[in-house]
Amino acid sequence: MDRLDARVLTISRNGPFRASATTFGALIGSGFRRYSTYRQATIAGTFTNIVFGFLRCYVLLAVAEGSADGLPAGYDAEQLATYVWVGQGLLSVIGLWGWTELADRIRTGDIAADLLRPVPPLVSYLAADLGRALYAMLTRLGGPLLAGALFFPLRTPTRWQTVPLFAVSVLLAVIICFGCRYVVNASAYWLQDARGPIMIWTLGSGVLGGLYFPLRLLPEEFVLTLWLATPLPSLLQAPLDVIAERDGPALQAGLVVVQVVWAVVVLLLAALVQRRAERRLVVQGG
Prior knowledge:
mainly alpha, 2 domains, 14 helices
């Protein structure tokens, strides 16, 4: 019977951790396969990211050229170019926008089916999002980086810890972004229509997450408050500063530690919101 349980991805008493890991891995794989079917969208999205990459890069390089020392907020030209092109590649990996599946299922009442499944909605959606991020990392990151390397001088990492820290930072950014989007979508439990909160999230995450410009161009006190009081700089600013080697090794690692804290906080908040919502859930239409 235990063999059958393992095969159908249920949790058995003899190996609960192994069964849970297998189930989580299977959900990641299903998320990967789901998004890998949209090949034309992948190509179109990569092309769009490259076009906007040229616009952003020229603007920031003009800012650097116009500054007194050529180092706006401590970034040189290579670091700014790296910031832009890696950011364009990570935009789809982090997945700032476009996910409304939870809000839509709450509005239609289909969320009731999710609550009857053995895997909680937060866990299943997180696993699917990790699969999406893995597919985006393999298909959406390389194009902008190649375009940037062909036309602009990019900074090559000079420290051995930069690449592994960057990989961990990107994973944490994906988890933090998912948790934030989950909480925003979960507002539909109370509002029924979450388009307002989703629109606010779309505007705020891009501006305060470091997508459009490095946040360090803003006043230092404001940036420090933003970094410690909100998870938004941990979405893009942190991994981009890590790969651009904007700071020394200690602060570089400190950025990742801040991300770890925010990943835990955001997932706990998402779990709390989900539990509170389940207590008052009213299925639409019945």
